[in-house]
Design brief:
The complex is a heterodimer of chains A (199) and B (474). Chain A has 199 residues and is of the alpha+beta class. Chain A has four helices and five strands, in the order E-H-E-H-E-H-E-H-E. Chain A has a domain of 118 residues: OmpA-like domain (60s Ribosomal Protein L30, Chain: A), CATH 3.30.1330.60. By secondary structure, chain B is mainly beta. Chain B is built from five helices and 32 strands. In chain B, the strands form eight sheets. In chain B, strands 3, 4, 5, 6, 7, 8 and 9 form a seven-stranded mixed beta sheet that branches. In chain B, strands 12-11-10-32 form a four-stranded antiparallel beta sheet, with no helix packed on it. In chain B, strand 14 and strand 15 form a beta hairpin. Classes of the chains: A alpha+beta (199), B mainly beta (474).
Chain lengths: 199, 474
């Protein structure tokens, strides 16, 4: 059945006041959109949309660890860095959030990369294969992401640099119905979400 | 008084929100006047009788719904035909009437007046009743349906059993007209609260081609019968777990667009959504459930950065009074809460025994007890008719939908073992369950009646999950 075409009318440019209960002042990743930024909500006639706020400039000096002149990531935005997949994912057994030997090895290598690029803030995504309910897999994805995060912290990575999120079984990397595909989907996946002052 | 339901779409651009208001598909209430009914309706059905009634064609009055009479205006005639077709489907859905086949009805010559109706032809088709309706234009874009149900056989053959005038139907939305008539006929003739005017909210990835490589699923809404499937959110992120409030208009849902999973609650007056669970980058909130009286919200939340396990929380709708109802459960995950019909009990899942099981507790977190099941359970939903529908099966599937009758404490399996079936939501009259199923190849939504039987597929495009069923508008 075709969807009814929707008619949009831009009623107002709405900038939302912060919801009740201010969030603690966690430094937001500059490249990500902010929810409900505080601003004036009065005025019914929509003004022209403001220019997109500039990204926080990445520090122009070298990061903490002296790098070679051919540092490939200097000054790059997270989306560009992620195209290189500089951080390798770790994989899990069915229904498990336990890190096996290979996973710990991979995380150790990832930790070295994170120490080298001390200005990266990353998000660890927990993913699951499609068996099991959607709700159960959101919980399992959380536990997988947190297991990876905990191990990185134990290797000396600052906890403030490591966010976690669970995608459960919502976004499988391989949609095929095979054990090989399922194994690829049971993972903790790393993305750089901000580059900021080194910590 | 009815609030016009507004679909608000929010687009983030450079940190500023634009709100797009979708012009509503006129669902202003149909005006009903002059209603008369000759035969009193049966007594209110007890929950235990529903399956018996739905399954028993022998006790269903047999009704024919031929095309309605209209004045020969092609546009009006088309609208009238839609009304008669959709009304037929709405009555057929509840199994309170037995519907005479539309093709058979079409063979009977139409009659301009009731006196001219060939009752012998209707008797031949097995009808007990036949509808006679005339459609006329009203104000611009509107029409009225002068609607009669006429007795076909017995001592009162030819007499009008039920009559009503339905006004302010719109040419633009004849389905809504039919749904309004169906709900009125069900209420007045069968003492049944129908669901023809209800909606199903769900999650779909069907439009994420617009964001290649991005992880996008949006909240969608459709009519209970699968018509009018349309997007509700435009966050260009992952949005899941829609949950209607009892007003049938406000919708809570989980979205990741702010950076991590938080709960958003829309408001019928079009003001910005609120975030009663007040998430931030270190908190993950899931599974909103608004209390029947609309004052509080249950949800599950992971606020422990070390374990990631969720607890059940309760909070006032205005964000105050946050309380963890399952503290001291660091080693287990408590999730997917649902309110009892009176708001005095909570059912939820916990894996503290090693695998997900159903548990009950009070809204203060007291009187904890397990509903023992022999398999993994998930996503319990407590119907207004006092049974709990839930996902049931081995932890890794395949699953079926099971029903737990709170009164008799009996468990029955509703689906038939085809594919994997889960995430149930129950219609407000307790007669139908909408659920996610893999039986059609990928993830789709279907409804099945409490009497079981063949499910009806609602979605076909993309991957569709997390259905939630609204109440009728107040």
């Amino acid at each position: 059945m075709s969807r009814i075409p929707t008619r949009y009318a831009i009623v107002a440019l709405l900038v939302f006041a912060a919801a009740c209960g201010k969030k603690p002042p966690v430094a937001p990743p500059p490249a990500a959109p902010q929810p409900f930024p505080t601003a004036d909500t009065s005025g019914t006639k929509p003004p022209a949309p403001p220019a997109r706020p500039a990204d926080t400039p990445v520090t122009s000096r070298d990061p903490v660890v002296t790098s070679s002149a051919t540092d490939p990531y200097a000054g790059k935005a997270p989306d560009d860095i992620n195209k290189d997949s500089p951080l390798k994912p770790v994989f899990f057994q069915l229904d498990s959030d336990q890190l096996d030997e290979l996973a710990r090895q991979t995380l150790t290598e990832d930790a070295e990369v994170l120490k080298k690029y001390a200005n990266w803030v990353i998000t660890i995504e927990g993913h699951c294969d499609e068996r099991g309910t959607a709700e159960y897999n959101l919980a399992l994805g959380d536990r997988r992401a947190i297991a990876a995060r905990g191990f990185l912290i134990s290797l000396g990575i600052n906890a403030d640099r490591l966010r976690t999120v669970s995608y459960g079984k919502e976004f499988p990397f391989d949609p095929a119905q095979s054990e090989a595909a399922f194994a690829k989907n049971r993972r903790a996946h790393f993305t750089v979400t901000a580059t900021s002052e080194p910590r | 008084m009815t609030l016009k339901p507004l679909a608000l779409s929010f687009l983030m651009s450079g940190g500023v929100l634009f709100a797009f208001v979708e012009a509503p598909l006129s669902t202003a209430p149909v005006v009903i006047t002059g209603r008369q009914t000759q035969t009193p309706p049966p007594g209110q059905q007890q929950p235990g009788q529903i399956v018996v009634r739905m399954d028993n064609a022998a006790i269903q009055p047999k009704i024919a719904i031929p095309d309605f009479n209209s004045a020969g205006d092609a546009e009006l005639e088309a609208a009238a035909r839609t009304v008669s077709e959709v009304l037929w489907a709405d009555l057929d859905f509840e199994k309170e009437f037995y519907l005479i086949d539309r093709n058979a009805s079409a063979a009977v010559p139409p009659a301009a007046s009731i006196d001219a109706m060939p009752m012998d032809r209707w008797r031949d088709l097995g009808a007990d009743f036949v509808v006679h309706a005339t459609v006329t234009r009203g104000a611009a874009g509107e029409f009225a349906v002068d609607f009669r149900i006429v007795t076909v056989r017995g001592t009162t053959a030819g007499q009008v059993d039920f009559s009503a005038l339905y006004e302010r139907c719109t040419i633009r939305n004849p389905r809504w007209c039919a749904h309004s008539i169906a709900d009125d006929v069900h209420k007045k003739k069968r003492n049944l609260d129908g669901v023809a005017r209800t909606k199903v909210a769900f999650v779909s990835d069907r439009d994420n081609k617009s964001a290649p490589g991005r992880q996008v699923k949006e909240i969608y809404v459709m009519d209970y019968d699968g018509a009018n499937q349309r997007p509700f959110t435009a966050h260009r992120s992952l949005s899941i777990m829609p949950a209607w409030a009892a007003d049938g208009v406000s919708l809570a849902y989980v979205s990741y667009f702010g950076g991590n999973s938080d709960i958003y609650l829309t408001r019928p007056d079009g003001r910005a959504p609120t975030r009663p669970a007040n998430g931030n980058m270190d908190i993950r909130n899931y599974s909103p459930a608004i209390s029947p009286d609309g004052t509080r919200m249950l949800f599950s939340s992971s606020r422990d950065v070390n374990t990631g396990r969720t607890d059940i929380f309760i909070v006032n709708i205005d964000g105050t009074g946050l309380k963890n109802l399952t503290p001291n459960t660091a080693a287990s995950g408590e999730a997917t809460p649902s309110w009892s019909p009176a708001g005095t009990e909570i059912v939820f899942t916990s894996d503290k025994t090693g695998t997900n099981q159903l548990w009950l507790m009070s809204p203060e977190g007291l009187n904890l007890r397990r509903l023992p099941m022999d398999k993994h359970c998930d996503k319990p939903t407590w119907s207004l008719l006092n049974f709990i529908a839930f996902t049931y099966g081995p932890q890794d599937g395949p699953h079926d939908i099971a029903l737990y009758d709170v009164q008799t404490q009996k468990v029955s399996i509703l689906t038939d073992g085809q594919g994997s079936n889960g995430s149930p939501a129950v219609s407000s009259n307790g007669r139908h369950v909408v659920f996610t199923t893999s039986r059609y190849g990928n993830s789709q939504l279907a409804t099945v009646s409490r009497a079981g039987g063949r499910p009806r597929q609602l979605t076909t495009v993309g991957s569709n999950t997390y259905a939630n069923w609204s109440r009728p508008p107040q």
